## 1
Amino acid sequence: MAKKCIECGKKKGIFDYDYAGLSSRHGRHPFPERIGLFYLPRISKQGIKTDFLCRDCASNHKVVCKKHGEIQGSFKFGSAPVCQKCVSENTGKSLQDYYNELARNVSNNSENWGFWPIEGRVKKIGREIDAQFGFAGMQEVNNAIRSSNGAGPARELERIWDGIGQWRG
Ligand SMILES: [Zn+2]
Ligand SMILES: [Zn+2]
């Protein structure tokens, strides 16, 4: 006997994915901790799957990104909708990558430590670090520059990052 959706009563087709009990964080979220956590309704007991929730009914339950608000899009292919704004924020770079790029540009000239000529790029790096790793990530990179290149370049970096996120330089 075909299962029926616990919310609308529609019969489960062979290719219909079952969303009963699925987590709102199930999916390829770049920042899973930003996704408001809930579980779709289910009636089956552990281990015995007797219920079915259809895709349309699953999609009536709105998934919210804590940073960008309600996510446009529906549950599909057995996953929750993904926040496209989070996707565009996620560059796939690590703090080490950002540090490397900055450290490469430090010169030994005390008049100019190398960051002002590429101010725009340095600001962009700051915004990307803030979006992905927050204030603590910016601090880590700034501290690493101070350790490897000294207080001068670190101070220059602090001033260029002024106003990005919580950063005040
Ligand atoms: Zn339904
Ligand atoms: Zn988001």
Note: The CA atoms of residues 5 and 54 lie 6 Å apart.
## 2
Amino acid sequence: MRLGEAQAPHPGRIYLMATASFPLTLALWYRGLHMGTVVDMHVHTIVGSMDSDISPKRLGEQAQAVGLTGIALTEHLHQWPADEVEHFRQEYRLFVFNAREWSTDMGHVVTLGLPRDVRGIHRARDLRAACDDYGAYFVICHPFRYFPGPSSLLFGHRRDQQSMPIEELAEHPVFSLADAIEVLNGGCIERENTLALDVARRLGKPQTAGSDAHMPLEVGRYATVFEKDLESEEDMLGELRAGRFRPGRRGMLAGQYEVLAETEAVAEK
Ligand SMILES: [Zn+2]
Ligand SMILES: [Zn+2]
């Protein structure tokens, strides 16, 4: 038994604690009336990503152990076959969105809701157009990974990265293409996530969170907390469009996730 497990009255359920910057009323509202769905919005497995070490079994077990109630599969190469997703849903009783992560000319993008046969897109603008055609959702992921530096996917070509003010960073065209910005990514360092959060707040863009897990124990470090109990991909797309979700991170107790408050910093406690 892990530390804290005994204190959680219902292990596996969601407990959002009130902190100084997280209003008590909102905490109770989440906790008492709407349990919602806690979705790790960025996960890679061996089914569709060469660089992942996570089998479906380990994903299901780890998700349950940390208290997630949903997963968005964001494979690099192939989406999961529909029957495999269904089997996984039933076996682990988790909400699952079969999504995808794309490498584009403007960084990495997770799309939710594009048909399986849409392939071979390399330009972010074309991906945006496809999302518009199909009513899919576009999340720009880890926009400041490796920033500042030559490996930064969005700003690597700029020699003056270090001195670019936040207003100028926020003007990168990918942000106007995006429906939401991933502000907590488990593969990023704190400074990189902070910049993403600053840009999202400046632009008033919705914010998502995901572990970007490639190893089992990374699953669930960050997750997006939806107000509603999600039942289908359509359901989640509706909630995404309505903006009824917040970025969150694992709390101290088993099954507990804390929502990042409006003005709270990314810094770990
Ligand atoms: Zn990525
Ligand atoms: Zn990824």
Note: The first helix runs from residue 24 to 33.
